[in-house]
Specification:
The protein is α/β, with parallel strands linked by helices. The protein is built from four helices and ten strands, in the order αααββββββββββα.
Length: 199
């Protein structure tokens, strides 16, 4: 019988471990520098034994070894809604139902989510991104804020943020994941900006 620690892990296992680390950052258990270092180990891990050390000193310790390491770790707050596109464009605008947890995946396409006209927004929205050469654009309503410190750039990816990291009165987005050769843009509504300029 093979050693459970030598079993190859999946991308889902790595993302579950990454989510635990992001939660630990939000709880003040680790620093941003520690998060970046540990995420590097998590995303490079190939087996269950390699996935354990970055989580060993956190509550619950490393995920139990087995056929599906990290399976007991929640994927995110509530049910995570997965939106994906290959080379096309996926848009959500107007008054749409925004979930508390999203996963956005694009290889060469564009995902454009406009939250500025949605009337019922969760106070905290967890957004996991994964781009190849694609683009993710998040348009936020007035008073909203976003934290993109958990997003890892690679292969020349670009992250553009034009909203405050923290602000009162609006929803707060916690964005994490990977940006490959594409880009992530988080900005406010242009219509809202024009209204402010024109009075």
């Amino acid at each position: 019988m093979s050693d459970p620690d030598s079993i190859r892990i999946s991308d889902a296992d790595r993302e579950a471990a990454a989510k635990r680390l992001h939660d630990a950052l939000g709880e003040g258990r680790i620093t941003l520098t520690e998060l970046e270092e540990r995420l590097g180990v998590v995303y490079a891990a190939r087996t269950a034994s390699e996935l354990g050390p970055p989580l060993a000193d956190l509550p619950g310790g490393a995920p139990a070894a087995g056929p599906v390491p990290g399976a007991a770790v929640p994927a995110g707050p509530s049910e995570r809604v997965h939106l994906r596109t290959g080379a096309g464009t996926l848009k959500r605008t107007g008054d749409w139902q925004v979930p508390a947890a999203l996963k956005l995946t694009t290889s060469m396409g564009t995902i454009h989510l406009d939250l500025s006209e949605a009337r019922h927004l969760p106070p905290r929205i967890d957004v996991e991104v994964s781009t190849g050469m694609g683009e993710v654009v998040l348009v936020l309503p007035e008073g909203a804020s976003a934290d993109v410190d958990g997003v890892v750039e690679s292969w020349g990816g670009e992250i553009r943020t034009k909203v405050p990291g923290r602000a009162g009165g609006g929803p707060h987005l916690v964005v994490h994941g990977k940006v490959g050769m594409g880009s992530l843009t988080v900005r406010g509504s242009r219509s809202g900006w024009w209204k402010a300029v024109l009075g």
